[in-house]
Amino acid sequence: MTHISTGTHFSIQCKANKKVSHANLTCHHIPQNTLKKKRPQVFATNSKTTLLWFRGTDLRIHDNPIVHAAVERASTGARVLPVFCYDPRFFAPTPLPTADPRTGHYRAQFLLESVADLRRSLRTLGTDLVVLVGHPEQLLPRLAAGHDAPVVLATAEVTSEEARIDRKVSSAIKGMRGSLQLQWGSTLYHIDDLPFADTLVDMPDVFTPFRTKVESRCAVRGVLPAPTKGQLGVLPSVPDDMPVFHGETLQELGAAMGGVQFGGVEEGPPQV
Prior knowledge:
The protein is globular. α4 links the parallel β6 (151-155) and β7. It has helices at residues 65-75, 105-124, 136-144, 160-174, 207-217, 250-256, and strands spanning 19-22, 25-28, 49-54, 79-86, 130-133, 151-155, 179-183. By secondary structure, the chain is an alpha/beta fold. The strands form two sheets. The protein has a five-stranded parallel β-sheet with strand order 5-4-3-6-7, sandwiched between helices. It has one domain: 3-Layer(aba) Sandwich (Rossmann fold), CATH 3.40.50. The chain has six helices and seven strands. 27% of the residues lie in helices and 13% in strands. α3 (136-144) runs parallel beside α4 (160-174).
């Protein structure tokens, strides 16, 4: 199982505009109304192209809501194009005085290997993964160019940087009569199953009351099955001018992002 966060972290125990810490996860100034239950997604019936946008926290085909939704779309005749973008913003230095990299050597290596593993998994299903380097809000519309009312499927994020990118992607896709459809899939309990108001305004700040209420009124949803061969269809054609990344090393990835350096660490596992 591969699971990595490319940006800020989030705990389901957090409420809007609060700062809470639990189990080594933090929630910092989540904008009000960002965290709330979702209405059922309604897809355009005339859309025949679906971009299956993997984001880094969801690099798997099993128990993955966006993959499950893509299979349902493919069963109605939609073309599914799996895509992952190495976004240079998540590899740039932080704004701190030390200018530490947002993504260090070991984390970048894990991400690189996780993307490669996802690609192998998709190939066993008869499709593939398009790996790009650049900003998703610029690349995804280019991938969907020429297709009527494209749908972008992605895992919902609630932290500020990822949410900002979501808004940019949504705006760009809307210009093509398309839509960004976000699926919840980052917590043990599904957000729609929580025994709180739709806005979650009554969700406790303290963990124990949260746990007591949730455990007595909620159930963990069942595991979603992995697709079988052919259920995602075959990979649609990709425009020739897309910045496709075919590299296998951090050095190649750094070069593709304009000279990002992942050096300064000896080869091998971290030393304790």
